[in-house]
Design goal:
The chain is of the alpha/beta class and about 575 residues long. It contains 14 helices and 29 strands. The strands form eight sheets. It has an eight-stranded parallel beta barrel. The protein has a five-stranded antiparallel β-sheet with strand order 22-23-24-29-26, covered by helices on one side. Strands 3-2-6-7 form a four-stranded antiparallel β-sheet, with no helix packed on it. The longest helix has 19 residues. The protein is elongated and about 85 Å long. Its main location: cytoplasm. Its EC number is 3.2.1.141. Pfam families: Alpha-amylase, DUF3459. InterPro entries: DUF3459, GH, GH13_cat_dom, Ig-like_fold, Ig_E-set, Trehalose_TreZ, Trehalose_TreZ_E-set_sf.
């Protein structure tokens, strides 16, 4: 019987003990604050926890790989080598030219599990997307939630199926040619089960969402390593193709080498060893091209970043909403200007922030594929009071005009699950904390937040009500409805067109031009032209040459010489 090694970092504790069932084992401290124990017979599937100093409440392993009893229970040993992968021939997907599909495992299917999601992967293949981006699957308190309140970053949420189920999901995606990205949260921990600070100086300050990590203070080297090792494990042990890094603007790191730069360097090294591309995609509110500038040129070297300015400009142009952070995007030139340069706020005044914000990109140096463009995502839907999708406000035909812009742009398109058929289901904020006081605080806080914007208490869904999860679950049966099917076929055709005509996927921003004619746009994409009428009446749009027959159109356009006439809320690709 071989001895199994257990270890945990607790540099300022005088005693650490390991518990396995009713038995307690002493651990030995090394010179770096790590505690170790060798235990015979404690192999795969063994439940264990740690006792710190004289505490008698066992705590889960901060580096736990499996939490079948929830975030307050013991950790379980899990051997990554035991899974039988079938994707040895997988070589990955490059981001340039790709299309991303964002989904939440808990509401993607009625069952809300990885195994149930397998039955819907062929739908994604038929749609034509290249990447599946999965919202966080790390362990969080309760059964249902968005995943951004995770506290054990290396353990797959057990109600979704646990670690083996996630690997089956990734393996099945790769078998179908789909790359998999995972949303990870390193800027804060959730409010329930965040025991890291009991082990060591993991925390330094807080964000609006919860405690923040100590990335640059005393003993921060091991904390940084905690983040980097977690990221590398997802990519290596779960065969993932990349990570989406949540709200990196909330990472406080004043060191000479920012955590993001260090992480990108380590991930690139891993990619070289695995011989397939690995992508780090940041969610950032900074509008700073440094994130996606190569390290050779003094940047952090991330693969891409979400671009909310593109979303905001599209949202305002399509819906007419100008409240809150949409206010600045109400200018007539906001959409064409943002399409041309990715950032609307680029060293310019932001009325929402009440300060100058952002920095311009250089279209000769920065490829458009490094900026994600989307009409909707989990935040922009879920953080609305009622979680309503765009088609709850505007006709599907108008949304399809936005889809044509996104999918024929030089940016990397991203869809949110159900968008491709104009799903009627909202996507609302929900959680299921087991602590009743915390549940009440979250419920009351949500209602108070929206009461300040004029919403009545009854109008804000209760995030703790299981019915909120049910409402937010995709209604797949709608694909049988002719109106929803028409939307789906249009999305499918746009993605296929992007693949068939390389000009429509060309990410070079210095070769991309946008013309405006009142409320109409013309996107110049090499030899192709994308014409969109967002006005309230039929319009005749001049082009720089006779367009020929349309490759795809939402209605039959009238072509006379170099002029195209389109009804309102329609598009055509020539």
């Amino acid at each position: 019987m071989t001895a199994e090694h257990f270890s945990v970092w607790a540099p300022h504790r005088d005693r650490v003990r390991l518990t396995i069932g009713p038995t307690t084992h002493a651990m030995e401290r090394d010179d770096h604050g790590w505690w170790h124990a060798e235990i015979r017979g404690a192999g795969d599937g063994t439940d264990y926890a740690f006792l710190l100093d004289d505490d008698e409440t066992p705590l889960p392993d901060p580096r736990s790989r499996w939490q079948p009893a929830g975030v307050h229970g013991p950790s379980r040993r899990y051997d990554h080598r035991a899974f039988a992968w079938s994707d040895a021939a997988w070589t990955g997907r490059q981001l340039a030219g790709g299309v991303i599909y964002e989904l939440h495992i808990g509401t993607f299917t009625e069952q809300g599990t990885f195994d149930a999601a397998l039955d819907r992967l062929d739908h994604l293949v038929d749609l034509g997307v290249d990447f599946v981006e999965v919202l966080p699957v790390n362990a969080f308190d309760g059964t249902a939630g968005w995943g951004y309140d995770g506290v054990l970053w290396g353990a797959v949420h057990d109600p979704y199926g646990g670690p083996d189920a996630f690997k089956r999901f990734v393996d099945a995606c790769h078998a179908r040619g789909l790359a998999v990205l995972l949303d990870v949260v390193y800027n804060h921990l959730g409010p329930s089960g965040a025991y890291l600070d009991r082990f060591g100086p993991y925390f330094a300050g807080s964000t609006i969402w919860g405690p923040a990590l100590n990335l640059d203070g005393p003993d921060s080297d091991e904390v940084r390593r905690y983040v980097i090792d977690n990221a590398l494990s997802w990519l290596r042990d779960y065969h993932l193709d990349g990570l989406r890094l949540d709200a990196v603007h909330a990472l406080v790191d004043r060191g000479a080498t920012h955590l993001l730069e260090e992480l990108a360097d380590e991930v690139d090294a891993l990619a070289a060893g695995l011989r397939r591309p690995l992508h780090l995609i940041a969610e950032s509110d900074l509008n700073d091209p440094k994130l996606v500038t190569s390290r050779d040129a003094g940047g952090y070297g991330l693969a891409a970043q979400w671009c909310d300015d593109l979303h905001h400009a599209l949202h305002v142009a399509l819906t007419g909403e100008t409240d809150g952070y949409y206010r600045d995007f109400g200018r007539p030139d906001a959409l064409p200007d943002t399409l041309r340069r990715a950032f609307f706020h680029a060293g310019t005044w932001s009325s929402f922030r009440r300060r100058t914000h952002g920095r311009p990109i250089d279209p000769r140096r920065h490829s458009g594929h490094r900026f994600l463009c989307y009409l909707q995502n989990h935040d922009q839907i879920g953080n609305r009071a009622q979680g309503d999708r765009m088609t709850a406000t505007i006709p599907a035909a108008r949304m399809l005009c936005g889809a044509a812009i996104v999918l024929c742009s030089p940016y990397t398109p991203m869809l949110f699950m159900g968008e491709e058929w104009a799903a009627s289901s909202p996507w609302q904020f929900f959680a299921s904390f087991t602590d009743p006081d915390l549940a009440t605080a979250v419920r009351d806080g949500r209602r108070k937040e929206f009461a300040e914007h004029g919403w009545g208490e009854a109008e804000v869904p209760d995030p703790m009500d299981p019915a909120t999860v049910t409402r937010s679950t995709l209604p797949w049966s709608e694909l049988n409805d002719p109106a929803h099917r028409t939307v789906y076929e249009t999305y499918r055709a746009l993605i296929a067109l992007r693949r068939a005509h390389p000009d429509l996927a060309d990410p070079r921003l210095d070769r991309f031009h946008v013309d405006t004619h009142d409320a109409c746009l013309v996107l110049h994409r090499g030899d192709r032209r994308v014409v969109v009428n967002l006005g309230g009446a039929s319009a005749t749009i001049p082009l720089d040459r006779p367009p020929g027959e349309p490759l795809l159109a939402s209605t039959e356009p009238e072509v006379t010489g170099t002029h195209v006439t389109l009804p309102p809320d329609t598009f055509a690709v020539f």
